[in-house]
Each structure stands twice: as structure tokens, then as C-alpha cells.
Amino acid sequence: MTASAASPGSSSPEASGAPGSALPSGAGAWVVLPTYNEAENVREIAAAILAALPAATLLVVDDGSPDGTGALADELAAADPRVRVLHRSAKAGLGRAYLAGFRVALDSGAARIIQMDADWSHDPSATPSLLAPLEAGSADLVIGSRYTKGGQVVDWGIARRFVSRGGSLFARIVLGLPANDLTGGFKAWRAATLGAVDFAGVHAGGYVFQVEMTYRAQRGGARVREVPITFRDRRVGQSKMSRRIIVEALVVVIQLRWEELRGRGPRRAG
């Protein structure tokens, strides 16, 4: 799949000062926001993100949404230099959309990168709390966690809760990862940490991408921290979760462990 160039916009703000120094909210940060058929959400979610992080750059990564999401994002970019758009020709999995957006942000000089969904399940007002440990120099990857103390999920039924919690627990046991919430996609990365991940070696295209990226970062020596969030079901539209995605998650987690046992996985730091 070939992605078009990002729409013109302002260059990313440069971070300044020592870790922990006061910065304009979102300075040096890019927010990568994949979309597919999010026409009902994209305007409001973009406004809310930029209200929470006025100095950030928002990159919408649209996978050829047939409902016109990409065109709406272009309108936002034309009206606000903080917004950019990366158009991809077709839907090829959430993970691939994120990787494409990450590459644009890294190549554009982002200091910190936030990843989040466009469906309001991730609250834009929580973005400053994700950035805070990075700005303080106490973490390299921050996970917005539903399953750490103070985190919660609302609007989900028992089956969806079981799949989510069970998936995180399965990955924790098989891969030996310390984080409680491995399947969530609300994260903030230090650019150097994200840039050290071998994108070409990433297997996952679906939701297990979240597990694999945390695994690769942790094996690379990243300091991973969780901050509590409240996760809500999407406001409008339909969930993109499917049985195929769940099966892929199980297979990829086992594959990662098998590769590591055979000495073919990412090298452990230190």
C-alpha cells in the first residue's frame, strides 16, 4: 500500500528545556489518529485534542474511508496549520496505519508521540497526563491504563470485558510483561524509544499491535509506566473488533514468544 504525503501544515514544535521544565501544553508532541469511517467523529475529536494540547501537531491517518473522513480531515488541515493528514489508499489494519503515522511524525522531528483512537473511547483531556511522565524524564512509554489503580471501563458488557482483560493477562503471562493493560491503544512515546523499534519486524496489523509494540519497547529497555484512564465505548458507529482479530492476537503473542525462545526475537537491552 502506498501512502500519500502528509498535507501541508506547521512543522512540529521543538521541545525546549530540561526534563520537567515548563512547556506549552503539547510542545514537541504529535498525536497520531488513525481513522476509518469516522466522519461523525473526526471534527469534534480533533478540536478536543487540540484544546487539550494547543501546541501539539495532530496527524490524521485515513485509510481511504468511503464515508468521506479523509476529505473532512483535509478541511481541518486547510483551516488549522496544526493539523496534517496522511492518506492511505485502503484499509490495511490498525497497526499499519499507526506505523505509517509514526514514521511521518518521527521524520518530522517529533519529540513525543501520542497514539489514540478517533471514536472517543480515549478521552482527549487525558493526553496531558500521558505526556507528563515523558516530560519529567521518568518514562519512555506511558500506557493509558484501564486496569491499573484508578483506571476503569464503562459501557462494556461482560463478554467484551472478559476478552480485553483476558487478552492482557494472556500476553502478560506468555511474554512476561509487567504492564496490566497490554491491549489498550492510548499511549505516549518518547521519540527515541519509538524510533528504536524495528517497524519492519512488526508482525501485527490488528489490535494485537498494541501488545507487540509494548513488548518490543520493553525488551529494548524502555521504562514503561501506566497512568489510569477511564475508557468509554465509542459514541457513534460500530466497533471494529471481530473474531478474526481475537484469533490473530492469540497467534501473534505465541509467535513472539516462540521467536524469542529460538533467539530470533528482539534483543533484550543490557
What does this structure look like?
By secondary structure, the chain is α/β, with parallel strands linked by helices. It has one domain (29-261): Spore Coat Polysaccharide Biosynthesis Protein SpsA, Chain A (Alpha-Beta Complex). It contains eight helices and nine strands. The protein has helices at 42-52, 69-79, 94-107, 127-135, 158-175, 191-195, 209-219, 243-261, and strands at 29-35, 57-62, 83-87, 112-115, 141-145, 152-154, 187-190, 224-228, 230-232. The protein has a seven-stranded mixed β-sheet, sandwiched between helices. The protein has a two-stranded parallel sheet with strand order 6-9. The longest helix is centred in the last third of the chain and has 19 residues, at 243-261. Mean pLDDT is 87; it is low at 1-5 and 7-21.
Summarize the structure.
Helices cover 36% and strands 16% of the residues.
For the structure shown, list the relevant keywords.
270 residues; Spore Coat Polysaccharide Biosynthesis Protein SpsA, Chain A; 9 strands; alpha/beta; single chain; 16% strand; two-stranded parallel sheet; disordered N terminus
Largest sheet: 7 strands, mixed
Could you say what the CATH architecture is? Alpha-Beta Complex
Beta fraction of the residues?
A: 15-25%
Helix tally equals: 8
Write down the overall mean pLDDT. 87
In helices, the fraction of residues equals 25-40%
CATH class: Alpha Beta
The oligomerization state is single chain
Instruction: Give the radius of gyration.
Output: 17 Å
Name the CATH homologous superfamily. Answer: Spore Coat Polysaccharide Biosynthesis Protein SpsA, Chain A
